[in-house]
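Recall the central idea of this unit: under ordinary conditions, the amino acid sequence of a chain determines the structure it adopts. In this exercise we apply that idea directly, starting from the sequence alone.
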Amino acid sequence: MTETVLQELVQNEVVENKSLEYKSALPENTHDGKVKFLAEVSSFANTAGGDLVLGIREADRKPVDVCGVGTGPVDLEKQRLESVLRDGVEPRIPGVTIHEVSLASGGHALVLRVPRSWAAPHRVTHGGHSHFYGRNSAGKYQLDVHELRAAFGRAQDVAERVNLWRLDRLAKIEAAETPVRLQAGPRLVLHMIPLSAFDPGFVARLPSEPGDPNLFPLYSMGYDGRPNFDGFVTYYSPGGREPRTSYLQLFRNGSIETVDTLLLAANASNPLVQERIIPSVALEHRVIESLQRYLQVARSMGVEPPAFVALTLMGVKGFSLYVDPQFRTSAPAPIDRDPLIIPPTLVEDFGVPPDVMLKPAFDAVWNAAGYPESIHYRDGRRVR
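Accordingly, the structure predicted from this sequence is:
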């Protein structure tokens, strides 16, 4: 985004529309000013997304001049707008970015890029205001009852589609319908499913050759890879032999699936070990480490938040979670079901640390073992 782009909008007389709005100044720091700003941004998020350009003067909805919004400290202006957005809309709108455009005159303009939100509808709540807004070719307007009902229905539909897609994938893994043949035994499965995966117009940018260090499957020490019907798959086994011990599948819709058979197999297949154990420290460490890489992969594929992150343990009925004796408050209870399907966690910002994203999933695993939460966290962050 450059001044040249903004000048072209003026020269070509690109009128305001469903996905574009011009403002000649920053929002006023008053109740009405904040509400108008929040209404504009939420209307984009509740519809199809778009750009709010601060620093272009318009007349009859046509841009007439790139005037900028002043020469004040840009970082402070961004922080104020981010704060207003954070506190004045419910639920919070994920993925909004603010771009600074330097002008030859010495000032600057700001462009807010607002993606279509899969957490819509968003309601403006600042100062007791309580309205929902949408957009059409004439600009923003207040949603009526029928439009609100449809918007809530779409949000519920997306969540149901995510759940059905995940359950279908787990059924295929259970039936050994996987992209590579896996060795037998319990399985650890991690899914990252962006809500944009169910947008018919979205197609992920997939790698064509292996080589990216972020494409290691879960709990692996190397990998091979190739394109396949679903997108791109990488896989690993010690010595490169079949059956494989893990794989990572990148789907054309932007979803990511990784399955490992090593982490949970050490004691499960050993006839000398009477108690089957889930290594709690290694489990959390390896999944956090892997998710950190896969967030980079998601960005490279063009995937934007929000996304669901979901953990599943298969073949673990009767397993017990390992707890260091010095931290035990009671004997861990054996897992009473198979598979152990952990409820997914919605991630609205890929900049959130992976250990924070995964805490609800790990807490659920510890709940299944009779503990109130993971003992490896302090103040919401995992500690060594």
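The chain has a mean pLDDT of 91.
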